[in-house]
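RETRY 2/3 - previous attempt timed out on the joint model. Re-submitting the same 227-residue input unchanged.
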Amino acid sequence: MAVILFFGRFSDLSERLDIDLPDTVTDKASLTAFLSGEIEGFAEIAAKPDTRISVNMMVSMNPVLVTNDDEIAYMSALSGG
Amino acid sequence: MIRISDTAIDPEGELAAFRRNLPNTGAIASFTGIVRDDGQTEALTLSHYPGFTEKQIAEFVIQAKMRWDLHGTLILHRVGTMQVGDPIVVVATGSAHRRAAFESCNYLMDRLKCEAPFWKQETVGGETKWIEPRAQDRNDLDRWSS
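RETRY 2/3 succeeded.
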Protein backbone atom coordinates (compact mmCIF):
# COMPACT_ATOMS: atom_id res chain seq x y z
CA MET A 1 0.00 0.00 0.00
CA ALA A 2 1.44 3.37 -1.03
CA VAL A 3 1.43 6.32 1.35
CA ILE A 4 0.67 9.67 -0.21
CA LEU A 5 1.29 12.80 1.84
CA PHE A 6 0.05 16.30 1.10
CA PHE A 7 1.78 19.49 2.24
CA GLY A 8 1.08 23.18 1.92
CA ARG A 9 -1.86 24.00 -0.34
CA PHE A 10 -2.30 20.29 -1.02
CA SER A 11 -3.12 19.78 2.66
CA ASP A 12 -6.30 21.80 2.14
CA LEU A 13 -7.49 18.90 -0.02
CA SER A 14 -6.25 15.88 1.92
CA GLU A 15 -3.77 15.06 4.67
CA ARG A 16 -2.77 11.51 3.80
CA LEU A 17 -3.85 8.60 1.67
CA ASP A 18 -2.94 4.96 2.19
CA ILE A 19 -3.94 3.31 -1.06
CA ASP A 20 -3.29 0.41 -3.36
CA LEU A 21 -2.22 2.09 -6.55
CA PRO A 22 -4.29 1.14 -9.59
CA ASP A 23 -2.52 -0.61 -12.45
CA THR A 24 -2.60 2.57 -14.49
CA VAL A 25 -0.27 4.28 -12.01
CA THR A 26 3.37 3.51 -12.67
CA ASP A 27 5.21 6.79 -12.18
CA LYS A 28 4.86 10.32 -10.79
CA ALA A 29 3.05 11.61 -13.86
CA SER A 30 0.44 8.86 -13.91
CA LEU A 31 -0.06 9.19 -10.15
CA THR A 32 -0.64 12.91 -10.55
CA ALA A 33 -3.15 12.23 -13.33
CA PHE A 34 -4.91 9.66 -11.16
CA LEU A 35 -5.13 11.97 -8.15
CA SER A 36 -6.31 14.81 -10.36
CA GLY A 37 -9.30 12.69 -11.26
CA GLU A 38 -9.96 11.66 -7.67
CA ILE A 39 -9.50 14.91 -5.75
CA GLU A 40 -11.25 18.11 -6.75
CA GLY A 41 -8.82 20.99 -7.05
CA PHE A 42 -5.74 18.76 -7.08
CA ALA A 43 -4.84 19.30 -10.74
CA GLU A 44 -4.76 23.06 -10.37
CA ILE A 45 -2.23 22.97 -7.53
CA ALA A 46 -0.20 20.17 -9.11
CA ALA A 47 0.21 22.23 -12.28
CA LYS A 48 1.87 25.15 -10.48
CA PRO A 49 5.56 25.53 -11.35
CA ASP A 50 6.65 25.50 -7.70
CA THR A 51 5.01 22.14 -6.94
CA ARG A 52 7.44 19.39 -5.94
CA ILE A 53 6.90 15.67 -5.67
CA SER A 54 9.15 13.46 -3.58
CA VAL A 55 9.33 9.68 -3.69
CA ASN A 56 10.76 8.17 -0.52
CA MET A 57 12.03 11.64 0.44
CA MET A 58 13.92 12.12 -2.82
CA VAL A 59 13.02 14.91 -5.24
CA SER A 60 13.93 14.49 -8.88
CA MET A 61 12.94 16.33 -12.03
CA ASN A 62 13.16 13.03 -13.91
CA PRO A 63 10.35 10.51 -14.32
CA VAL A 64 10.39 8.27 -11.25
CA LEU A 65 8.57 4.97 -10.92
CA VAL A 66 6.17 4.60 -8.00
CA THR A 67 4.99 1.39 -6.36
CA ASN A 68 2.86 0.33 -3.43
CA ASP A 69 6.00 0.30 -1.26
CA ASP A 70 6.62 4.01 -1.70
CA GLU A 71 5.93 7.17 0.30
CA ILE A 72 5.05 9.93 -2.13
CA ALA A 73 4.68 13.54 -1.03
CA TYR A 74 3.04 16.38 -2.89
CA MET A 75 4.39 19.77 -1.84
CA SER A 76 3.22 23.21 -2.88
CA ALA A 77 5.63 26.18 -2.90
CA LEU A 78 8.05 26.00 0.01
CA SER A 79 8.24 28.88 2.47
CA GLY A 80 10.59 28.73 5.42
CA GLY A 81 12.20 31.38 7.57
CA MET B 1 23.10 21.54 14.85
CA ILE B 2 19.72 21.42 13.15
CA ARG B 3 16.58 21.47 15.25
CA ILE B 4 12.95 21.85 14.26
CA SER B 5 10.60 22.31 17.17
CA ASP B 6 7.09 23.33 18.06
CA THR B 7 8.29 25.00 21.24
CA ALA B 8 9.56 28.56 21.62
CA ILE B 9 13.13 29.38 20.59
CA ASP B 10 15.38 31.29 23.00
CA PRO B 11 17.74 32.99 20.53
CA GLU B 12 20.00 34.56 23.15
CA GLY B 13 20.47 31.33 25.07
CA GLU B 14 20.98 29.27 21.92
CA LEU B 15 23.52 31.70 20.48
CA ALA B 16 25.43 31.84 23.75
CA ALA B 17 25.63 28.04 23.79
CA PHE B 18 26.72 28.01 20.15
CA ARG B 19 29.51 30.48 20.95
CA ARG B 20 30.64 28.43 23.97
CA ASN B 21 31.02 25.39 21.72
CA LEU B 22 33.29 27.27 19.33
CA PRO B 23 35.99 28.66 21.66
CA ASN B 24 38.59 29.10 18.90
CA THR B 25 36.34 30.73 16.32
CA GLY B 26 37.15 34.28 15.23
CA ALA B 27 33.78 35.23 13.78
CA ILE B 28 30.18 34.30 14.44
CA ALA B 29 27.33 35.69 12.35
CA SER B 30 23.71 35.10 13.18
CA PHE B 31 20.24 35.86 11.93
CA THR B 32 17.00 35.71 13.91
CA GLY B 33 13.70 35.86 12.06
CA ILE B 34 10.72 37.11 14.06
CA VAL B 35 6.98 37.25 13.38
CA ARG B 36 6.68 40.93 12.55
CA ASP B 37 3.90 43.23 13.67
CA ASP B 38 2.43 44.64 10.48
CA GLY B 39 -0.77 45.67 12.22
CA GLN B 40 -2.75 42.85 10.61
CA THR B 41 -1.10 39.50 11.28
CA GLU B 42 -2.68 37.67 14.20
CA ALA B 43 -0.68 34.46 13.94
CA LEU B 44 1.70 32.56 11.72
CA THR B 45 1.50 28.78 11.44
CA LEU B 46 4.32 26.73 9.96
CA SER B 47 4.29 23.06 9.08
CA HIS B 48 7.03 20.76 7.80
CA TYR B 49 7.68 17.26 6.47
CA PRO B 50 9.33 15.44 9.40
CA GLY B 51 12.48 13.64 8.34
CA PHE B 52 12.60 15.16 4.90
CA THR B 53 12.89 18.76 6.09
CA GLU B 54 15.85 17.92 8.34
CA LYS B 55 17.45 15.98 5.48
CA GLN B 56 17.14 18.92 3.10
CA ILE B 57 18.54 21.40 5.62
CA ALA B 58 21.46 19.06 6.30
CA GLU B 59 22.19 19.16 2.57
CA PHE B 60 22.23 22.98 2.66
CA VAL B 61 24.76 22.84 5.49
CA ILE B 62 26.98 20.43 3.55
CA GLN B 63 26.91 22.77 0.57
CA ALA B 64 27.71 25.77 2.78
CA LYS B 65 30.71 23.92 4.18
CA MET B 66 31.90 23.25 0.64
CA ARG B 67 31.81 27.00 -0.08
CA TRP B 68 33.25 28.34 3.17
CA ASP B 69 35.55 27.07 5.87
CA LEU B 70 33.08 26.83 8.74
CA HIS B 71 33.78 25.79 12.30
CA GLY B 72 30.11 25.28 13.12
CA THR B 73 26.53 25.95 12.07
CA LEU B 74 23.30 26.34 14.01
CA ILE B 75 19.86 26.17 12.45
CA LEU B 76 16.78 26.30 14.66
CA HIS B 77 13.35 26.52 13.09
CA ARG B 78 9.93 26.77 14.65
CA VAL B 79 6.83 24.97 13.47
CA GLY B 80 3.33 25.28 14.87
CA THR B 81 1.48 28.49 15.60
CA MET B 82 3.39 31.64 16.52
CA GLN B 83 2.32 35.10 17.61
CA VAL B 84 3.74 38.50 16.75
CA GLY B 85 7.19 38.85 18.30
CA ASP B 86 7.92 35.11 18.43
CA PRO B 87 11.22 33.96 16.89
CA ILE B 88 10.66 31.80 13.79
CA VAL B 89 14.21 30.91 12.85
CA VAL B 90 17.76 31.27 14.12
CA VAL B 91 20.74 30.70 11.85
CA ALA B 92 24.33 31.09 13.04
CA THR B 93 27.66 30.25 11.48
CA GLY B 94 31.16 30.32 12.91
CA SER B 95 34.37 30.75 10.96
CA ALA B 96 37.88 32.12 11.33
CA HIS B 97 37.01 35.38 9.58
CA ARG B 98 33.98 37.64 9.25
CA ARG B 99 33.39 37.34 5.50
CA ALA B 100 32.87 33.57 5.59
CA ALA B 101 30.61 33.90 8.63
CA PHE B 102 28.47 36.68 7.12
CA GLU B 103 28.14 35.09 3.70
CA SER B 104 27.43 31.55 4.89
CA CYS B 105 24.75 32.78 7.29
CA ASN B 106 23.17 34.76 4.46
CA TYR B 107 23.39 31.75 2.13
CA LEU B 108 21.76 29.36 4.59
CA MET B 109 18.94 31.80 5.28
CA ASP B 110 18.26 32.22 1.55
CA ARG B 111 18.16 28.44 1.09
CA LEU B 112 15.78 28.08 4.05
CA LYS B 113 13.47 30.76 2.72
CA CYS B 114 12.79 29.17 -0.66
CA GLU B 115 14.04 25.60 -0.59
CA ALA B 116 13.43 24.13 2.85
CA PRO B 117 10.25 22.04 3.13
CA PHE B 118 8.23 24.37 5.32
CA TRP B 119 4.81 25.79 4.62
CA LYS B 120 3.55 29.01 6.13
CA GLN B 121 0.04 30.23 6.81
CA GLU B 122 -0.83 33.70 8.01
CA THR B 123 -3.97 34.46 10.00
CA VAL B 124 -5.51 37.86 9.29
CA GLY B 125 -8.99 38.85 10.42
CA GLY B 126 -9.65 35.30 11.55
CA GLU B 127 -8.91 33.87 8.10
CA THR B 128 -5.81 31.97 7.06
CA LYS B 129 -3.94 32.23 3.79
CA TRP B 130 -0.85 30.51 2.44
CA ILE B 131 2.33 32.58 2.26
CA GLU B 132 4.76 31.79 -0.54
CA PRO B 133 8.19 33.20 -1.37
CA ARG B 134 8.24 36.65 -2.96
CA ALA B 135 10.14 37.49 -6.14
CA GLN B 136 12.76 39.16 -3.95
CA ASP B 137 13.27 35.93 -2.02
CA ARG B 138 13.88 34.06 -5.27
CA ASN B 139 16.26 36.77 -6.49
CA ASP B 140 18.16 36.51 -3.22
CA LEU B 141 18.50 32.77 -3.72
CA ASP B 142 19.62 33.17 -7.34
CA ARG B 143 22.66 35.16 -6.17
CA TRP B 144 24.23 31.90 -5.02
CA SER B 145 23.73 29.93 -8.21
CA SER B 146 26.80 31.32 -10.00
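Chain B has a mean pLDDT of 95. Closing ticket.
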